[in-house]
């Protein structure tokens, strides 16, 4: 199995030194780049695509941080393997549907993934745990510079970086953050927040692209515009919006505790009980239960290191991961639900019971 | 608190030697009796009722099995105390609403309760654990004979025992059994069963008098007719119907295990999880969760002695019990729900985790 190192590695994404970790799961920046005087992937023929793939792989191999990484080509991966990469946000759904002359190179710690021949020749992505645009930008800028040394990027003094789709033209930067917003969801304020955020040219989606009913109360918030602003301005404006959303989430949680503590404790307790004792768990339900556990950690009902476990399970209980972990002998989604419940049961039965009194006394 | 001995006693009702204990919770027989030449309670004036009460108390005090019992008069009991007696099926809802010159005498082991000045002068009730009409009848017959020695019962050679309501005329016997029928409920067969049973002149009600959507899947099945059949014939005919219902329940459970084992295991597991970790539990929900735990015991997922705990909690998690146990400082039903969850959590956290593999292997 080609993606074994990716599955088995302990990633560095769990470093939670950048507060407020209770709301922000991770930060991501992505740059689209294309080689000058070369057709975009959708316009290139097979041999051109093959050549682009080889040139990019070669350039990436020269980057220090990508050494010892995984070099993967789509045509060599099984469906569940591609699914795992999608679930880890290392490749896009679009790339996973592609059959040939495309691939991804994933750094050893999975903090960087560079797709080749997706919509653009190169899609460079850097992930950081918590709320950390500065750290992410520093790394992606270095990678971008390193690649520019070897590949001549398509760039227009007037338009900036040229991309296959005009929505990426200019900086070709997509900056985003994964937020855990159970407070706003429980308080039914998410729609209002989404509307306000959208009006500022900022997009909101679920963890896997869903809308406001995102499972697990996880939302991805990112810039929509790439043209007419510098990279720094894009991130600055996005940060301003994010700061407000984070504050609103923290207020919503505070109000929940003040006005409906027994109900919230009950929800968290039952989630814990279902994870410890369920026998059938769909991935959507698992997400929602894990989301409540994460909130339980934030409220001090579970140990701090469970936040790390929950964030890991958000990924590893997705269908592709369950399929791969059980070595592919699951015939249908019912069997996956049994296996998912088994995996979660095993972990959560190892924990001490929730101590409701802790919170009630505060 | 007058009913303390009733609350604190370990009753003998938990002797489960009479199979099939997985379906039958308890057996009850009840006789209505009235003193000859004396107005029925609803027609008697206050001083007549007082005299009836005294005469009956005196007669009952002479019975060996009622010695060391609790002699209670309604006017001396608080509302939660009366509620507890109703929840233990020791008095009727009707008697609990009565203000004066009425009462109940409860034997020390709570297997016998004799109401005075309810609808009739005397309502004698004997309870036995499991399926045991023979044992229950033997005891109630002895009590009836003992009382007849001291009180002259109203009896007509043509009609049999005379009662305030004609529906009790004749034997004045109500024989009933509490059945736990989760299999038939889950298989949506209960309505069909109730219709068939009703056609044979047998009544079906919930644990506290509800219909076919009885919480906890507990149903009370009893004879409707008291006239024109001997006591033995009534019990024989009822037993015939009960045997069929018990067999249908056992078949329904077998089919559930064959066709939907993962779903049933999941339900039982989640019930266990909610009892271990819930923070708010209504009494109706507690009944349903406990019902699933009882089924879990029957399926070998929990230790045998948990059947006894569940049967106890069916009673002690009712509102009156929760109110009394917490010493009455609960202001509303939300607080009772918190207290109920606490009591159940304390017990169920002491148990080992469910071992799904046991059942899956069989």
From TrEMBL, chains A, B:
What's an example GO cellular component term for this entry?
extracellular space
Q: Which Pfam families match?
A: ATP-gua_Ptrans
Positions bound to ATP: 26-30, 89, 123, 174-178, 205-210
Keywords attached to this Swiss-Prot or TrEMBL record, sorted alphabetically, are: Allosteric enzyme, ATP-binding, Kinase, Nucleotide-binding, Transferase
Gene3D superfamilies on file: Glutamine synthetase/guanido kinase, catalytic domain
Query: Anything known on activity regulation?
Result: Appears to be allosterically activated by the binding of pArg-containing polypeptides to the pArg-binding pocket localized in the C-terminal domain of McsB.
Where along the sequence does the record place the motif called RDXXRA motif of the pArg binding pocket involved in allosteric regulation?
336-341
Q: What does the UniProt function comment say about this protein?
A: Catalyzes the specific phosphorylation of arginine residues in proteins.
**Listed PANTHER family:** ARGININE KINASE 1-RELATED (PTHR11547:SF38), ARGININE OR CREATINE KINASE (PTHR11547)
Identification of the protein by name: Protein-arginine kinase
Species the sequence originates in:
Rubellicoccus peritrichatus
């Amino acid at each position: 199995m080609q993606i074994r190192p990716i599955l088995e590695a302990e990633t560095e994404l769990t470093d939670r030194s950048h507060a407020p970790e209770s709301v922000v799961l991770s930060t991501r920046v992505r740059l689209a780049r294309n080689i000058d005087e070369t057709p975009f992937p959708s316009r290139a023929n097979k041999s051109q695509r093959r050549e682009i793939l080889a040139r990019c792989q070669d350039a990436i191999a020269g980057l220090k941080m990508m050494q010892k990484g995984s070099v993967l080509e789509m045509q060599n991966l099984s469906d569940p393997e591609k699914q795992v990469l999608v679930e880890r946000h290392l490749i896009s759904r679009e790339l996973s549907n592609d059959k040939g002359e495309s691939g991804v190179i994933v750094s050893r710690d999975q903090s960087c993934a560079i797709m080749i021949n997706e919509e653009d020749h190169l899609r460079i992505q850097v992930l950081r745990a918590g709320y950390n645009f500065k750290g992410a930008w520093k790394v992606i800028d270095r990678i971008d510079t390193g690649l520019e040394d070897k590949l001549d990027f398509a760039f227009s003094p007037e338009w900036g970086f040229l991309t296959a789709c005009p929505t990426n033209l200019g900086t070709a930067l997509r900056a985003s953050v994964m937020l855990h917003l159970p407070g706003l969801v429980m308080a039914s304020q998410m729609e209002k927040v989404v509307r306000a955020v959208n009006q500022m040219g900022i997009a909101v989606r679920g963890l896997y692209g869903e809308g406001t009913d995102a499972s697990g109360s996880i939302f991805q918030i990112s810039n929509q515009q790439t043209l007419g602003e510098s990279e720094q301005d894009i991130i600055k404006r996005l940060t301003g919006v994010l700061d407000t959303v984070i504050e609103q989430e923290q207020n919503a949680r505070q109000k929940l505790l003040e006005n409906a503590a027994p109900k919230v404790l009950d929800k968290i307790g039952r989630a814990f009980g279902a994870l410890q004792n369920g026998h059938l768990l769909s991935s959507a339900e698992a997400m929602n239960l894990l989301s409540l556990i994460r909130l339980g950690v934030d409220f001090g009902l579970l140990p701090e290191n469970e936040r790390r476990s929950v964030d890991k399970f958000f990924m590893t209980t997705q269908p592709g991961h369950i399929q791969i972990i059980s070595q592919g002998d699951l015939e249908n989604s019912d069997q996956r639900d049994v296996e998912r419940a088994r995996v979660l049961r095993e972990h959560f039965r190892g924990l001490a019971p929730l101590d409701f009194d802790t919170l009630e006394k505060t």
